[in-house]
Each structure stands twice: as C-alpha cells, then as structure tokens.
Design goal:
alpha/beta; binds magnesium ion; binds adenosine-5'-diphosphate; 23 strands
Length: about 675
C-alpha cells in the first residue's frame, strides 16, 4: 500500500475501527496528522548498564540473560504476577510483572534481553517492576531516545511509536517550509523537514533542542502574525471618532493631580478615541495604581463628545462602588450616572432603562445585568470592562453589540501579566501600563505566620483597631464546596465576634448574600461602622476602603500568588502604615517559598512572573483564554526568549508585507490560518 498524508490510520496494520476511534480522540485520523502531533516527553534509552553499575535514580536500560523460565502466579484479587531472574557478569536482577501474563512465554530462558525500568535495591538484592523489554538482537524500543506521546485509554505508547515510525518520515518529506529563508538565516532556525523528523526521533538531546526551537519559533511567529492581522483588520472598521476635549477640564474634576503614568495613559486613550477605528485597549496597572481615574477619563471624553459610555464590573459590590465614586467625580460636569444590577427592583430597572434609552443617563455602570435584553442605549460609543479577567471576550462583545457602530473598548486589569505574555494573553488588544503608584503610599508590610502565632495575630488586629484602623480577615473558598465554605466563614465570623473581639463590631461578607445585604455591609465597613470585615474572596477585586490597614488571609497557601497580591492590594490605600498577614498551617516548603515571595516584593509584575515560573503558564492560559489558538509546542517556561524573537520577526515581516499577500508568503499565511482554524470565525 502506498502511504500518503491522506491515508486513514485505520488502513495501517493493527489499527481497526475501535483503535481508530480512540486515536481520533487524540486528534489523529490520517497519516499526515503526525505533522502536528508531538511527543510530550522523551526517554533516554541509549546507554546500556550492567546490573551492578545501573543507577538507582530514574529509569535505565540493562542488558541481561534470562536465567530461568518465568513463573506465573495468581494472588488475591485476581492479580497475576510473573517473576523471573535475569543475570549478567556483574550480578542478578529480579523482575516482577503485574497483570502481564504473556511475559511468561515472551521471555525465554537463555536469551538475552534489554530491560528498561527503574532499578530498586533491598539489601543487596536488585529488582525491577514492569520493565519494558525486548530481545537484545533486535532493538526497537531501546537503544535510542524514545518519544513519549500523549495517550488515551486503550492506546499504548508502543502503538504510538509504531505509528510514528510509519508516518513521520512521510510527513517530514511532505512538510512545507513556511518560514522565509531570510528569517531562518537570521534566527538560525532549522528547516521544516529536519525539525519534523527530529522532534519525533532525535538522535541526541542537542538536536532535539534545535528542532524544538524551530517549531516553537514557528508557532509563536504565526501566532504573532495572526494577532497582528486581526488588529490590522480592526483598522478597517469604523466607529465614532470623538472630537478633541480639553484635558484640564477633566483633571479639574479630580481630587488629586494625576500621576505621570495616568497622564500617559490618558494620552494613549485620547489618541485612540479621536480615530474612527475603534479603540481596543487594555490598561494594566497594579492594584491601587489608579485605574478608576483612567476609566473615568475615557467615559468623560466619550460623553463630552455627545455619546454614552458603559462600565461593566465583575461584582455588584464593585459596580456599586464605581457608581458611587464616579457619580461624585462626574456630577459636577453635569454627567448623570445610572446603576444597573440584577438585584435592582423591577421599578428601578424600568426607570433606569427608560432614562438610558432616552440618553438622560450618560454613563451606565453595572454587572452583566448591562447585557440584559431591554437595556438599550441611545448612542453608546465606549465600553469599559473593569478587572477583565472575570469577563469573557464574548461578554465584552455582547455589550459592544448594543452600540450602533463598533464602540471603543477599554479593558482594565489588575492582574499583571508578565510583559512578554501580554500580547499573547490579551490577543489583539493594545496595551497601556500604569507603572507608577500615586505618591505617599508606603509598601504594605507582609508577614507569613504559622498557627502558633494566632494569638499574636489577634492582638495585632486589636491594636490596629484601637488606633482607629480597620481590618479584613479573608477565608479561602474551596471550589465546589459552597455549603462548607459558607459554614466555615460564618462560624469564623461568629467565633471572632463572640470569643475574640466581643467589644468590636465584626461584619460578614460572602458570595451567597443578597446583593442588597452585601451592599449594606460594604457601606457600613466603608463608613467605619464595622471595624473588622470577615469575608470570602468577594472583596478580592477593586474594593477601596482607605482606612483599612490590615489584611489577614487564613489558609493562605490555598491562594495563588496573584490572588494574594490582589487581596493585599485592598490595604495600603490611605497613607496609613499597612500590613498583610498570611496565616498558614502548611509545612510544605514549596508553599512556604511561594508565600515568602509575596512577603519579599510588592511588585505585581515580579509576582506574576514568579507565579508563572512556579505554576506554569496554565494559569494565564487557562479558562480565560477565549478565542486564542491552543499552542502545541511552546510552553513558555523556557521559551520566553524565542517568544520575543518571534514577535519581533513578525512585526518586521508585516512592515514589508502588511497582509502577507505576496506569493512567497502564501504557505505562511496558510499556516497562520490553520493555527487559528480551531477558533472558527475569528479569521473570516
Ligand atoms: P485600582 O487601580 O486598583 O483600580 P483605584 O482606582 O481604586 O485603583 O485607586 C486607588 C486609590 O488611589 C483610590 O483611593 C484613588 O482615589 C487613589 N488615587 C488614584 N489616583 C491617584 C493620584 N493620582 N493621586 C492620589 N491618589 C490617587
Ligand atoms: Mg479598580
């Protein structure tokens, strides 16, 4: 049979319907699919050891002779055991196989085999459990670096290896070179064919690295190109260009002079808004850097131009807080703010909707309730999403659809993304960074303490409250255990109120509360009527009470670093010396190291990079990854440099060929489309 890239795998020997189905789960249908299917790991099975010299760490290959006929026995629970002793000049090795009765016949006494597995030692006796083995004179799964593939139930690596051996040479011969020769030369990248072959069957780890680097580069290069093309396309669609406005008119409304960083971002927004090409900008600023003022500026600017603006917040607490502060700020400019919450009464909703549709409310602030049917704008020109990691791209665009022409979009995030990742994580957004905090902030002092310091911690709370400050005490929520969480946070608040701080006023805030109640508690805390606020993480984002000077986090090891940084950002906002106490009973060195990182820095970007290093990119590429292609090779742990090179190269290429329309770039364009093909619609 002539094998081509289109040959269904089910036509290969040993692959029936059933296996074919299972392979499909891995995305493998035809021979050519191995072009984009990569090993997830490799095992070095090149070196062969003697029994005595074999290392006790990791797995290794041993060449030895079967000294006896394997013995099959059955033990409790129907478990089958095959045992056999093998020998070489240096000693003997006992092998045990579980539930692989075929081994009894497969290993012949007097024959020599290579065994690959982990050697264990008990006293002077060495043994191996479930090794991979084959006859020493026909090595196929030992003697080289073996690729380990992603697997699924019923598909062994052995089978995958056989398939790869049949299909990869063919795929490699047929693979198209997408990278322009000049770019390959400049960045010293291997050719496509070599990379394809080598990534499956590397003769050495050095060569594997060369191949991987090329594939990584290609993937990130195509991703950058794709995102830039998307951005370019936005250039061609048109919305409302806003007339110029006088910046001083806005700054006169602010109770403080803006920081240099805020002014710079005002400028960037200003430039975007004066063009008809809709703005699509992300403002990244650490907690407390003053993003609300930036949102206010954008809204003010749109409203000055005669349009309406909308601000979407992830929680009702936050939406209400924004409505409050923006109302105070913008009312003197004659701007009317409306609040849109799911929990508003029918009458409130009706009236707000009417005023909005009539253009009497110029700034609509709310939760996803803003997206409800019946919420209509007269002339929406700007959408601001606060703390965007809580929103999907979908929700953002649902709001945008309420505008007659594509509105300007401003997204604000306090989750610092390492700069190198921002472009990828935020797709086709332009990025502004507020890299400066308002003056007069003293960094929050952070301590990691064990359970043994609990009494001291309570005393500390007491002391700060006596000085007139307020404190947050936050408990973690365990996913999927809402009932339990609720109980524990309620019990904790109760305990504090009755036994620890009977003379103080302790409030409780949790996600299951009715929005009105939440609002009441939050307002009471903001007004200083409550001195201690016990809370789940509903206060994580955005809440602003300047008199709060202490954040205590219980079971701190359960939180991610960036999340803890967010929580810590709730204090240190009012010029009072502020503190964050991370309480943990954990003795896990990794957890403690993580918490100490937080204690050692207040730089959100550094913390994000640390988080990235510790937890891997999954956190950044997790569920908030909407509409971006899945990367197959690049994993970012070691590929940051390649990412930057690929991004630069993509920009340079687009500078010459804006739409990749030159014939010599056709294979590249096709590859870019392919990469984005799993996110249908994005490239139409
Ligand atoms: P975030 O970026 O976390 O959303 P906020 O917008 O809530 O930060 O601002 C945090 C605090 O800093 C608020 O109390 C706000 O009034 C204050 N603030 C913002 N900008 C300035 C500034 N330029 N000078 C002084 N205080 C500022
Ligand atoms: Mg904020």
């Amino acid at each position: 049979m002539e094998l081509t890239v289109n040959t269904p795998l089910t036509q290969l020997p040993g692959i029936g319907e059933a296996r074919g189905k299972k392979l499909e789960k891995l995305g493998l249908r035809q021979a050519g699919d191995f072009l984009h299917f990569f090993p997830k790991n490799y095992e070095d099975r090149r070196k062969v050891w003697t029994i005595r010299t074999a290392p006790l760490e990791g797995k290794c290959c041993i060449r030895a002779l079967a000294a006896q006929t394997p013995v099959l026995s059955r033990v409790r629970g129907g478990l089958e055991l095959v045992r056999v002793q093998v020998v070489d000049d240096s000693g003997s090795l006992w092998l045990t196989f579980f539930n692989q009765s075929y081994v009894q016949r497969a290993i012949q006494p007097g024959e020599e085999y290579i065994f690959y597995g982990a050697v264990e030692q008990m006293g002077s006796r060495r043994s191996m459990t479930n090794p991979v083995f084959e006859r020493a004179d026909r090595q196929s799964v030992t003697g080289s670096i073996i690729p380990i593939y992603p697997l699924t139930a019923g598909i062994s690596n052995h089978l995958m290896l056989q398939l790869a051996r049949q299909t990869v040479p063919l795929c490699a011969r047929q693979v198209r070179e997408t990278l322009p020769a000049s770019i390959r030369r400049e960045h010293q990248l291997a050719g496509a064919e070599y990379a394809c072959r080598t990534v499956h069957f590397p003769p050495s780890f050095e060569e594997l690295e060369v191949a991987r680097r090329r594939l990584c580069f290609e993937e990130l290069f195509c991703l950058s190109l794709g995102l830039s093309l998307l951005r370019g396309r936005r250039q061609d669609c048109s919305g409302a260009a806003l007339p110029p406005a006088c910046l001083e008119d806005f700054t006169a409304l602010l109770p403080f002079p803006p920081t240099q960083a805020q002014l710079r971002v005002f400028g960037e927004i200003d430039a975007d808004l004066s063009q008809s090409r809709p703005m699509n900008r992300l403002v990244q600023g650490d907690v407390g850097s003053g993003k609300t003022a930036v949102a206010a500026y954008a809204a003010w600017r749109a409203i000055q131009g005669g349009y309406q603006a909308a601000l979407m917040a992830p929680t009702e607490v936050l939406a209400a807080q924004h409505a409050n502060s923006l109302n105070t700020l913008l009312e003197p400019a004659g701007i009317r703010v409306g609040l849109f919450l799911g929990s508003s009464t029918a009458k409130e909703k009706r009236e707000a909707r009417k005023a909005l549709a009539a253009g009497e409310i110029q700034l609509a602030i709310g939760t996803h309730a803003l997206l409800s049917e019946g919420v209509e704008f007269q002339n929406l020109a700007l959408v601001v999403a606060d703390e965007q990691h809580r929103f999907g791209v979908g929700q953002r665009s649902a709001l945008a659809e309420k505008a007659k022409t594509p509105p300007h979009v401003l997204v604000m995030s306090a989750t610092p993304i390492p700069r190198t990742l921002a472009l990828i994580v935020y797709g086709d957004l332009d990025v502004s960074v507020i890299d400066q905090l308002p003056p007069g902030r003293t960094p929050v002092k952070t301590y990691v303490v064990g359970e043994d310091k609990r009494t001291r911690m309570y005393n500390f709370v007491q002391k700060l409250v006596a000085e007139g400050r307020q404190a947050y005490l936050v408990c973690p929520a365990v996913e999927g255990e809402e009932e339990q969480n609720l109980k524990s946070v309620k019990a904790y608040a109760q305990e504090l109120q009755t036994n620890i701080f009977p003379h103080l006023r302790v409030g409780l805030l949790h996600g299951k509360m009715r929005p009105k109640e939440k609002d009441r508690v939050m307002s009471a805390f903001a007004a200083g009527e409550l001195q201690i606020l016990v809370s789940t993480t509903v206060i994580e984002v955005g809440v602003d009470v300047p008199n709060a000077a202490l954040m205590v986090v219980e079971n701190a090891e359960r939180f991610g670093l960036s999340q803890l940084h967010q929580l810590r950002g709730r204090v240190g906002r009012g010029g009072h010396e502020s503190f964050c106490v991370l309480v943990t009973a954990s003795r896990n060195p990794d957890s403690l190291a993580r918490l100490r990182t937080l204690a050692s820095t207040t730089d959100g970007f550094r913390i994000a990079e640390e988080d990235l290093k510790l937890r891997g990119p999954g956190d950044f590429f997790g569920s908030r990854q909407h509409g971006l292609p899945q990367l197959k090779v690049a994993d970012f742990s070691g590929d940051m440099r390649v990412l930057r090179q690929a991004q630069d190269a993509a920009q340079a290429l687009l500078a010459q060929d804006r739409n990749l329309s030159r014939p010599e770039h056709a294979p590249l364009l096709e590859r870019v489309r392919e990469l984005f093909s799993e996110t249908p619609g994005i490239f139409n």
